[in-house]
Amino acid sequence: MAQTEKKGGLLRKSSASKKPLKEKVVLMYDEIFTTEDPSKCNPRFWEELFLMKVNLEYLEGKLEALDGEELMKIKDNINCLFQHCIQALGEEHPIRVVNALQTLCALIRGVHQKNKSTSGFDIINMLVGFDKAELCMKNLMESLDSLLCAEGSESLKSLCLKLLLCLVTVTDNISQNTILEYVMINSIFEAILQILSSPLSRREHGYDAVVLLALLVNYRKYESVNPYIVKLSIVDDEATLNGMGLVIAQALSEYNRQYKDKEEEHQTGFFSALTNMVGSMFIADADEKISVQTNEAILLALYEAVHLNRNFITVLAQSHPEMGLMTSPASPVPTTPVTPLGTTPPSSDVISSAELPLDADVQTSNLLITFLKYSSIVMQDTKDEHRLHSGKLCLIILTCIAEDQYANAFLHDDNMNFRVNLHRMPMRHRKKAADKNLPCRPLVCAVLDLMVEFIVTHMMKEFPMDLYVRCIQIVHKLLCYQKKCRVRLHYTWRELWSALINLLKFLMSNETVLLAKHNIFTLALMVVNLFNMFITYGDTFLPTPSSYDELYYEIIRMHQSFDNLYSMVLRLSTNAGQWKEPASKVTHALVNIRAIINHFNPKIESYAAVNHISQLSEDQVLEVVRSNYDTLTLKLQDGLDQYERYSEQHKEAAFFKELVRSISINVRKNLAFNTLSQELLLKEFSTIS
């Protein structure tokens, strides 16, 4: 008997003399693509159609092959197909429901492709017709809501979420997607929350649910009242919020694990041996090799949760059972990498062993630690656009955290100490820190470490000014909390002071190049005012009196840098150029730093002369400092502990619009409706009544 092959909806026999035969479902699709009503000749046409295995490729291809005018001619049949799909969602037979869901996905995608052309007809009119749109979309949303909330098939729920993601991402700019008006009116918010609060549903669908929610929240968020924003902001159910936190933590943790695996692979490979042999001339290339695709979709979800919901802040520090001591998963966890910006969910709530703390007996992990590790990776290389966006979003999230009173309370809590192993960029002049030497400290120390690391590692030609400004603002907000609540944090402040002084030196040495692109005086003023904050209020939040002495020692030791900065800003503030005003602000801000330098330097020189010492030790300088505080006069500077609170709408709207567009395109590109094979579905629904 001749062997049969199947390709593109055709059944071909190996005998060349016979014409290829079409699948029955393809013949039925062809009938829909005529101007005649297919049910005229066959009253059971629609009933039979949804028992046939969907041919997504053929249906989408057929839609895309027609021009706008041809498609308008068969609009009635397309409307009819769409309406019958919605009716089929209410059927008891699961196979009909599955086929209806997949057909809807193909219809929406196919019609969207036509909408991108110059014909410009409306997607809603083409799919359902304006006259029936409201009722049809209401029925569709109610059916999807019922399927998501029912205790039935997980495969059906997965398809429902993919259909909803398809609906949301049908246009690049989701705010121009008029279909979403019906998703706003007929909310599926509670269904999403139900998925996140149930451990089983969360494991299967949590990732898609969280990405869907993040996208829905961004629909016309600045132009109208978005019910998803309102509802997300008032969620207070602990199980739901923890569930959402778990999904985000698992996705970020998966990224961290992939990066660590690649890093270890790289270090043990030939390239690493070669690098060690010839020095660190290949470090930049090495870093490129271990980059992993970022996941802005899940990061956006974390941002929206932190920004909109005060209750979610508690989730950041929540140690979940799944994120603590390792337990064996019931079934093997697939190791397929997460698609970049896609919708592939991590398959289990059980955290990977790579995410476990160094000493699992005494410490657990939490969402904030996982996020800080993620940030330390993506912020290493900001040359790549996705990483730049990710890095910026990480800093925006940290800004929201640094402004929150409750978040600051647990960040600075002495009873919540963690060992946070941040990733550090390979640099020629420093050795890689040994993980085992990391101390257990309050979480704010890890945030400050991350900021210091960024400051030190991004002084380069393509200077990321915006990220530096955000970085300094985060440090300032944390200091404001410490000053207000008199929190004496045991931190190596010298590392921060040194990083800030080196940043000022970089700005000065690259003045001409940087001024062509940036107002460097805004950043310089922020850095100088951080020092002013330490000088004015340091006695209220620095851990010991000797820490305050060390601050003065650093200022005196690096006086040349401050002198050079003063000379530069004085020169520009006395000219009538564009930098006159911003430079003069820095000149005024330097008044106390200059007073310290001018007061102590002569005293130190005098001490050295009297004692016949050419080079004073640190202890000797500190002795001079301590004995001469009384005669030092400083000016009280106003507003050092004040800051402008973060506002998305006024300052970040353009960034989020572009970010959401990028996420929408990538989610659409990576959606796979045929991930559920017909064989698996038939096995699951083998008991059709």
From TrEMBL:
The protein's name: ARMD3 protein
UniProt entry tagged with the keyword Cell division: no
Boundaries of every Armadillo-like helical domain copy: 435-671
Record flagged with keyword Membrane: yes
InterPro entries: ARM-type_fold, ARMD3-like, ARMH3_C
Biased amino acid composition, Low complexity: 338-348
Domain of life: Eukaryota
Organism: Setophaga kirtlandii (Kirtland's warbler)
GO cellular component assignments: cytosol; membrane
Pfam family, one: ARMH3_C
Localization of this protein: Membrane
Keywords of this entry: Membrane, Transmembrane, Transmembrane helix
Predominant location: membrane
Region entry Disordered, spans: 329-350
